[in-house]
Amino acid sequence: MFNTALYAINFGEYFYENLDCFANFITKLGLKEIILIHVIDINILQHSLYSRYNKKDEERIKEIAESKFKEIKKNLEKYGFGVKYKIRIGNVAGEIANEANTENDDFIVLDKKTSAETHSFFAFYGSPLYEILVKSNKPILITKRNLKYFSNLSKNDNKSNFDCRDLFDDVLFATDFSDSSLKAVPFLNNIPSGIIKEMTLLTVLDEKTIDNVNEKDLNTFELEIAEKFENVIQNFKYKFTKEKSNLETIIKKGMPCKEINDFIVQTGKKLLVIGFKGRDKENLKEIFLGSTAESIVSALPCSILIVK
């Protein structure tokens, strides 16, 4: 079971919708408390004011944030969990990661607006979201922001058939069976029984690896993959099995990021769970290209839970 989540707010467009969406699905997860954090970027603050920056300007902006938080807190407490808020001034990523690392938060929640301009690794690479992913040692749930989602907390008239309240109903767990990727299993086991209705286990094999396996060893190779899938199922305590019709195992060949992304687009999955192994500092290719988790986040085909 989970107790506390840290939710980062930037007071951007449609943030009420995202909060309402978040509150709906964490109610299902049984969280007792959420901590809202807003970080005022000191660099932007200093360059956005017409007059020279001084302490009064800082206090004025903090008062505005405080006023917004009081309204948000009042609305969110109706869902039945405790609500706290914190206002920080400094580096956005650093403050959020530090807050999460020093507190007993079970995971961080971030939202990311999707647009054609942000669908590249390099756009993501320099963003605060990327820095939080690297600096934080907590699991991170990145919710796909849909600007047309209708909220009970807002007066916007835009509506959409996208409903994140069932975000955890159908989970895609992509794994390469490494220790880092399997760290997601304990996290998923903490989700209350019955919340996840369907689970898909997906692994992507290097095409060259398969092509180099001769026919004699192919059966052995397939048995090894089947055994690895079975071990994962055992670790889930058989909550998901083909016999219960709530489990599907998929094997793809090719580049992990592309195959995972294509599968999500084809199936319409709303939540991808993936482990984060970081990058090998000695491997220049990984330093340049980043990990599979980073590449997928940059494309953001759906909401993503990254477990460390």
Explain this structure.
- This protein is α/β, with parallel strands linked by helices.
- The protein has two domains: 1-166, HUPs (Rossmann fold, 3-Layer(aba) Sandwich); 168-299, HUPs (Rossmann fold), CATH 3.40.50.620.
- The chain contains twelve helices and ten strands.
- It has helices at residues 15-29, 42-48, 55-76, 92-102, 121-125, 128-135, 184-189, 207-211, 215-235, 256-267, 284-289, 292-299; strands at residues 4-8, 33-41, 82-90, 107-113, 140-145, 170-174, 198-205, 247-253, 271-275, 303-307.
- β6, α7 and β7 (198-205) form a beta-alpha-beta unit.
- α4 (92-102) runs parallel beside α6 (128-135).
- The longest helix has 22 residues, at 55-76.
Oligomeric state = single chain
State the helix count: 12
Q: Identify the CATH homologous superfamily of the largest domain.
A: HUPs
Low-confidence region ranges: 115-123, 147-162, 280-290
Biggest β-sheet: count, sense, barrel? 10 strands, mixed
Order of helices and strands: EHEHHEHEHHEEHEHHEHEHHE
**CATH-level-2 architecture of the largest domain:** 3-Layer(aba) Sandwich
